[in-house]
């Protein structure tokens, strides 16, 4: 190796080292700057300001932002039964059941006599159980709902949820007993609870008893359109089509904007092969809610039977986009794949 | 930066992406989502590198065109430092991107 090449090599090595040194120094300065920004930012946050922002987002139902600010407020030392409960409810709305339950239990530890906390715990377990189809979770939720009712016997929503939980476990008799307790307990909507008792019999396929309770609901509230509809369903199950039609039409008379009876009447005509009448009633339902998957599906099927294929496909496609699996299946049969 | 040892820069960038991912998961956890740390940090790393690469390419071509025009006007002899220019733009953009994302994550 000549002297010239040796010097050149040594100098180029120095160049490499200088570049590396500068790079390391700049990187370290960057990291230190980020750390400084983090520390200064953290110190500048006020617990009360963050909590105020959390509550503002919570009231506006902006649950992700509310949860984010509640989390920060709690990390800054905020505590209190209501804070943990509101944080938990925000988490529940986001579908984070485990964290919601954890925070509700913290709220319960601080204030063990708050009916709202126990109701929220029951609701959290109910939603978790519903999502995972786990009956043990329903039972756990029921225990908290019972505590909520013991603390606040006038909490109507707790009775409704406890009944729903029992019904999801297949324990309709238990659900009925709670609905009956609600009828005796306070000044709740009698019509509503009779209607719910009717649902429990319906789920057990005891249609006569279900009809009896739906009728009681109507007797307590003549404008209860849904109860007329439910009664019509029971007459249909008992093969009394004419009475069912009467009840559906009565439902329309008391609640013209309630879409369900239009679809039910349209379906009866469709099943009896009166497709023009089915189209008429489906169009009535469509006018109330053009995005109803059932109305669009019925219209599509009726048009298909009449022979108006283009209209049928149009409404079946809309029904599919609105969430109707039957419409997707029907379109596949016609040869249209929506994928 | 780290022009002669590019692999060190990539390791540092991955380490910064991991820290960013930690702050991102702190908020993702609120929605009950929990994805794997390795996969998540690699995604953040790839996103930052890809976006900065594309922007660096665009800026590099603008710089190259400007340099050629100036060289033509002032008759300056050519210097082969284009690769270094691109790398410098890329690394600076990566650091800037990391800082912006970090600042957004810690801001309340």
Q: Give the helix proportion of chain A (percent range).
A: over 70%
Q: Number of DSSP strands of chain A? A: 0
- Quantity of strands of chain B, as a count: 0
Mean pLDDT across residues of chain B: 87
Strand content of chain B: under 5%
Mean pLDDT of chain A: 93
- Judging from the principal axes of the Cα atoms, what is the shape of chain A? flat
Biggest sheet of chain A, in brief?
Answer: none
- Count of DSSP-assigned helices of chain B: 3
Structural class of chain A: mainly alpha
- Give the radius of gyration of chain B: 18 Å
Give the topology string of chain A: H per helix, E per strand. HHHHHHHHHHHHHHHHHH
Biggest sheet architecture of chain B:
none
Biggest chain pair contact, residues each?
Answer: A-B, 29 and 21 residues
User: Structural class of the secondary elements of chain B?
Assistant: mainly alpha
Oligomerization category of the chains in this entry: heterodimer
Task: Quote the distance from N terminus to C terminus of chain A.
Answer: 70 Å
How many domains in all of chain B?
1
Number of helices of chain A: 18
Describe this structure in words.
The complex is a heterodimer of chains A (339) and B (108). Chain A is mainly alpha-helical and 339 residues long. Chain A contains 18 helices and no strands. In chain A, helix 2 runs antiparallel to helix 3 and helix 6 (115-132) packs antiparallel against helix 7. Chain B has 108 residues and is an all-alpha fold. Helices cover 80% and strands 0% of the residues of chain B. Chain B has 3 helices and no strands. In chain B, helix 1 (6-28) crosses helix 2 (37-74) and helix 1 (6-28) packs parallel to helix 3. The longest helix of chain B is centred in the middle third of the chain and has 38 residues, at 37-74. The chains are: A mainly alpha (339), B mainly alpha (108). Chains A and B meet through helix 1, helix 3 and helix 5 of A and helix 1 and helix 3 of B.
